[in-house]
Write a structure and sequence with these properties.
With 314 residues, the protein is an alpha/beta fold. It has eleven helices and 13 strands.
Length: 314
């Protein structure tokens, strides 16, 4: 039985990754700073949850020790420059160093479609710097770049469905931005597929894989889809970018995590679709699921839980 360390294993994507790895027979270690998060994965028989701060380099080195591979899913969507640097750049750099020191060569890193050192948003630029830091570590590295990820517990389609149950119209900045949404189960399967075959067997030290679904949809299309399948479809009212940025600023100033930030809007200045410059999920033998097939099964108005379970087991 192989041992894998999964950073970010209690999050939305991380829980799915742990389920797939558990099913495949891996022994999984999941660090978390909050013991309460352990309940999200401790029902899986091959998962061990450890309280630890992965941002502490010494603690991270101890965590890496004794594992055959590492998966990094730690990421944030909102924050200032310092927060993005700490999460998306400093942590990967420390992780690369810890893996080298402990002789753990296999690493799968979840980045983001649109990661670009010259990108319009702090998020995109920090993601690119994190990739570069890991590539410098000289590991057997797989970088997965997903578009927006959807699934039963997402805070994307579910959120838009909930909002349309409350409001008569949907004022929407960036309504025309294009996405190529990918199912969380396909991302988890991609992690498992990467761990099952080292990159060096392909004649390289690292690889970049674009994780996208078969559908290219605008943000407005996705909002309508969420309403149609999940609650009630409301009219989408596109907002001029200036008004949208003002709306995002007000959301940033409100308590809690914002629904939308100005940095999110900056990211949407570039379409979030496959570039064609890198392999996609099909290179891993995965036929990506359509959002039209998955969303009805978990948003609740059409399909059902049995259909979603069938898709998970395909």
């Amino acid at each position: 039985m192989k041992n894998v360390l999964v950073l970010g294993g209690t999050g939305f994507v991380g829980r799915q990754v742990c389920e797939y790895l558990n099913r495949a027979g891996w022994a999984i270690t999941v660090p978390t700073r909050r013991a309460v998060n352990a309940a999200r994965v401790k029902h899986l028989p091959r998962v061990t949850v450890i309280e630890a701060n992965v941002h502490d380099p010494a603690a991270l080195e101890q965590l890496v020790s004794g594992h055959d591979a590492v998966v990094n899913l730690v990421a944030i969507l909102h924050g200032n420059e310092a927060a993005f640097e700490r999460t998306h750049v400093t942590l990967p750099r420390h992780l690369g160093q810890a893996c080298r020191t402990q002789g753990v060569h296999r690493l799968v890193h979840i980045s983001a479609l649109g990661a670009d050192a010259a990108g319009p948003s702090r998020y995109q630029r920090s993601k690119a710097r994190g990739e570069a830091a890991l590539m410098e570590a000289g590991l057997d590295l797989s970088i997965l770049r997903p578009s927006v990820i959807f699934g039963a517990e997402d805070r994307f389609l579910n959120l838009f469905a909930q909002l349309q149950s409350l409001f008569p119209v949907m004022p929407l900045a960036g309504a025309g931005a294009r996405f190529q949404p990918v199912w969380v189960g396909d991302v988890a399967q991609a992690v498992l597929a990467c761990l099952s075959r080292p990159v060096h067997t392909l004649g390289a030290r690292s690889e970049v894989i674009e994780c996208v679904g078969p559908d290219v949809l605008t943000l407005a299309d996705l909002v309508r889809l969420a309403g149609r399948y999940g609650s009630r479809q409301r009219p989408v009212v596109p907002l001029p970018m200036g008004v949208g940025r003002l709306q995002a600023l007000m959301m940033e100033l409100a308590p809690g995590e914002p629904l939308m930030s100005r940095d999110n809007l900056d990211s949407m200045r570039v379409d979030n679709v496959a570039s064609g410059r890198h392999p996609d999920l099909r290179s891993l033998g995965i036929r990506p699921a359509s959002v039209h097939a998955i969303a009805p099964a978990y948003l609740g108005r059409q399909g059902g839980r049995s259909r979603l379970n069938a898709l998970r087991g395909r």
